[in-house]
Amino acid sequence: MNSAKSLTDGMASGERGAGWKRYKASLKYGFYVIFHPFDGFWDLVHEQRGSLMAAHTWLFLFLLTYVLRLLLTNFQFITAPIQYINIYEQCGSLLFPFLVLCVANWALSTLFDGKGRFKDIYMAMCYALIPYVLIQLPLILVSNMISFDEAAYYQVLGSASIIWCVFLVFVGLMQVHDYTPGKTLIFLFFTIFGALVILFLIMVFFSLLSDAVGFFVSLYREIAFRLY
């Protein structure tokens, strides 16, 4: 009995160790992806070199970096009313459109004969955010060490992080769906348009829901007033 229990515990421990090892490998693989995007994104999806946990981690670090940038960057380089910043709102303002873009991309992939699943699209988009984390985090410290006269270096590096991420998104979706560059460019245009349509429909839905709730609340108050 004890030997069977020990064997079960050993197998469970081995599975946890293997899972942790795979997580670290897939997290580290992100550095290969950003410097070798064409091979990296292909292997990320088709060779199972990436993982959802690593993708979640990079997305979390992206959101954390964005918030820290707002809170800690020298006031000479960014004007953000720190006293009015709501961390949850700031994260939601990035996370929600990001997920909507992933959904729109996945929904439109059937019209464009795309091969990527939602999981593949999400992972590629998350891994494409790595340059923002790697560049913007050190820039927070740098912004507090340089003067306004040296702002050009700060702005160039900040812009480079955004451009790098956009390029990685382009290559990542191209590899995930197995598209040509031209078809990927057209597909991205329709993805952005589809995301705007989804956001519009969500806004209309919540607006109608708010009006409906307001109507029933007013009706209840009117009935309660007349009865009591």
Written account of the structure:
The chain has 228 residues and is mainly alpha-helical. The chain has one domain. 82% of the residues lie in helices and 0% in strands. It has helices at 2-35, 37-46, 52-72, 87-109, 118-127, 130-143, 151-177, 181-227. Helix 1 packs across helix 3 (52-72) and helix 2 packs across helix 7. The radius of gyration is 23 Å and the shape is globular. The model has no long low-confidence stretch (mean pLDDT 86).
Characteristic terms for this protein:
mainly alpha, 8 helices, 228 residues
Kindly provide the radius of gyration, computed on alpha-carbon positions and rounded to a whole number of angstroms.
Answer: 23 Å
Could you tell me the number of beta strands? Answer: 0
Our count of domains comes out at 1
Please tell me what the overall shape is: globular
Number of helices: 8
Unreliable stretches covering 5 or more consecutive residues: none
- Residue share in helices? over 70%
Q: What is the ordering of alpha helices and beta strands?
A: HHHHHHHH
